[in-house]
Amino acid sequence: MAYLLLACAIAAEVLATSLLPRTAGFSHLGPTVVVLTGYGVSFVLLAQVVRTVPVGIAYAIWSGIGTLTVVAIGATLLGQAITLWQALGVALVIAGVVLINLGGQVH
Q1: Single pTM value for the model
Q2: Which residue has the higher pLDDT, 78 or 34?
């Protein structure tokens, strides 16, 4: 159940971040409301997740998958070019999330 909530938290954060340019610096009300709501929902869900999943692991997954997804949306839907260095950075983020999860819990 916690990982389902984490997936929903990631989806809310990705939606909010993807719509952030449409707020025009928070000057357009509709997108601003969606962005702020998305971030709020994401943090509420993440707070529930860390009740059962270690915060470091939950945050690594949340931020890593969120970053990867937002970069992909930027490249495919928002027309943002991705440089080789940026692609390498995303690969390193993914590698970091994998290593954090493989490290397991310290008892």
Answers
A1: 0.86
A2: 34
